[in-house]
Specification:
Order of helices and strands: HHHHHHHH
Structural class: mainly alpha
Strand content: under 5%
Number of strands: 0
Number of helices: 8
Radius of gyration: 30 Å
Helix content: over 70%
Length: 179
């Protein structure tokens, strides 16, 4: 009896699989041929485009290659390779984060001077002129004290492209590398 149940289950599974194949074949008939690449789908073709698409270069390819090499050389499983790669990237970005934190701490110490600049500009009646005077005065105080206000953007400006590149490399890794 259990053999019959298993055989019936296999027959149903084969029936479902053949139904999926039939649906896929009908969808292909309705939709027509599928483009081999996004460039082909857009109607672009030619030797230079094919050459550009086949060249493996750029930061995403470099991170992808580094992860594959780390996996192959170390023999670690993929999850451990990704953890190790994350630690390496965080260590490389650490100087920008430390720089930003130091600049932010220095800016906090400038609060009394910045408040004094704001107080001296309160007597200006025109709002646009008052704001302009405040910003230029505060900028001058920051630069004189060695704190560049734009330096507070150092870490995000470094981290954002690095982490987007890493995400794209891992995405590429999932589509090209077999486990």
């Amino acid at each position: 009896a259990s053999v019959q149940v298993r055989a019936a289950g296999k027959a149903r599974a084969l029936g479902v699989a053949s139904g999926v194949v039939a649906l896929t074949a009908r969808a292909a008939d309705v939709l027509g041929p599928v483009a081999a690449s996004p460039a082909e789908a857009a109607g672009l073709s030619g030797e230079p485009l094919a050459l550009a698409a086949s060249v493996d270069w750029g930061p995403v390819a470099a991170v992808h290659s580094a992860l594959v090499s780390l996996h192959d050389v170390s023999g670690m499983p993929w999850w451990a390779t990704l953890v190790a790669g994350t630690l390496v990237v965080r260590a490389l970005v650490l100087p920008a984060v430390v720089y930003q934190q130091r600049q932010a701490a220095r800016l906090v110490h400038l609060r009394p001077l910045l408040r004094a600049v704001a107080d001296t500009c309160k007597h200006i009646e025109s709002v646009p002129r008052r704001q302009s005077a405040m910003w230029s005065g505060m900028w001058r105080v920051c630069v004189q004290q060695g704190v560049h206000p734009a330096s507070l953007l150092a870490a995000p400006l470094v981290q954002l492209p690095v982490f987007v590149t890493c995400i794209l490399a891992v995405r590429r890794l999932m589509t090209t590398t077999q486990a």
